[in-house]
Design goal:
The chain is an alpha+beta fold. It contains 4 helices and 6 strands, in the order H-H-H-E-E-H-E-E-E-E.
Amino acid sequence: MTIKTYGTVSTEQQKQMSGLEFVQGLASGALPLNTIAQTLGYDVAEAESGRVVITLVPTGAHLNPAGTVHGGLTATLLDSCMGLAIRSTLERGISQTTLEFKISLVRPITADTGEVRAEGKVLNCGRRVGTAEGRVVDGKGRLLAHGTTTCLIFPF
């Protein structure tokens, strides 16, 4: 088992890798995960071209005043898996950033839900804009949330 580290990857180092190499480095532990992953407790679990899976076990630290997981956590999982899915298709020296995303929260997530998986898949990626969809499911495969994103593609 690889121990995950947290931090940032320099722009210079990122420029030397394809998007797939970058995202696979996050998944394997060869590269540090971002610090929001540490704060929220999520992991990049799987990465292939056009598809990224992020996992998280919800805890009491993620709850809103109503006692369910805050929608912002679900939004972060979807934003991350969809954006990284797009990143996984990009060549060296090219990056992306989220322009907009939309999510729908279908079922409540609680501290008792167990591990959730957020899977992002690329729908289309051109020279300037990429789109992806994402789904968050529980251990039984039930849909908890879904969304779409539009990302700007640009050279570093």
